[in-house]
Design brief:
Blueprint lengths: L9 E6 L7 H7 L3 E6 L24 H8 L10 H5 L4 H11 L2 E6 L8 H8 L4 E7 L10 H9 L5 H7 L17
Parallel strand pairs: 1-2, 3-4
Length: 183
């Protein structure tokens, strides 16, 4: 495979933001089939968002999670994201997309922190994930967060060789474009 740019046939947005900020970018894509999955719900009634906000812990790989399971206290599971995902179809829709065809992940503004490790690990390590491209934050002083974001991304991989195969090199990534502030 090459790092050649290709235009996708379909855009699938996995939105971790609880607001409608994505719509400021959405119209820029124009003309493509698009789907937005508000995986963590939303704070308003946006198109396709039918889930209350999901807050909590999403790292069932963490040793602390295994300690939760040993407790005789179901209250510790009230803010485990995996259980909240079962309350809507959003996670199932995501997995149907992930299982359907090869895809490239474009990270725009997500920290890739471990609070979403179980889900991100499942997506990043999936055989259909061909690459992970980030749109990094470029600071006024000329520095950027590309390398720091790769540190965060690496925590979602068991196989570090796969990480190196999938993460797109800096030279093929670009800084995030900031949306117009509008009215």
């Amino acid at each position: 495979t090459t790092d050649e740019e290709k235009t996708p046939n379909v855009y699938y947005f996995l939105n971790f933001n609880y607001t409608n900020l994505l719509y400021r970018y959405y119209d820029e894509i124009g003309g493509m089939a698009k789907d937005i999955n508000y995986i963590h719900g939303c704070l308003g009634n946006y198109l396709g968002c039918n889930q209350e906000p999901v807050f909590g812990f999403g790292d069932e790989v963490d040793e602390r999670y295994h300690e939760f399971e040993k407790q005789d206290n179901n209250a510790v599971f009230e803010h485990i994201k995996s259980f909240k995902y079962l309350e809507s179809r959003n996670y199932r829709n995501l997995m149907e997309f992930v299982n359907s065809n090869p895809f490239q992940i474009c990270i725009y503004g997500h920290s890739c922190g471990i609070s979403d490790r179980t889900m991100l690990k499942n997506i990043f390590e999936h055989d259909n994930c061909i690459s992970i491209k980030q749109y990094y934050h470029k600071r006024e002083d000329g520095s950027d967060d590309y390398t720091l974001k790769n540190y965060a991304i690496s925590k979602h991989f068991s196989n570090k060789s796969t990480l190196r195969d999938k993460v797109v090199n800096l030279e093929y990534c670009t800084p995030m474009v900031q949306p117009d502030k509008g009215d």
